[in-house]
Prior knowledge:
This protein is α+β, with helices and mostly antiparallel strands. The chain is about 45% helix and about 15% strand.
Amino acid sequence: RQQVALGRALMIKPTVLMLDEPTAGVDVELRKNLWKNVKELNNGGVTIILTTHYLFEYSLSNNHFCKSRS
């Protein structure tokens, strides 16, 4: 389901992509693939706005905007 939603969002070649918990409920392989794709998009100039509850995933990004502990 997450892959389909991401695919649909990418069809219009966005300059900004908002992802709400994109790795929730996906297996480890899909999670790794998703992060690889997100990094490629960001390196290609797409601004990524992303929420996650996984602090490890949060720490993978070097472009932090906001972190909440609530």
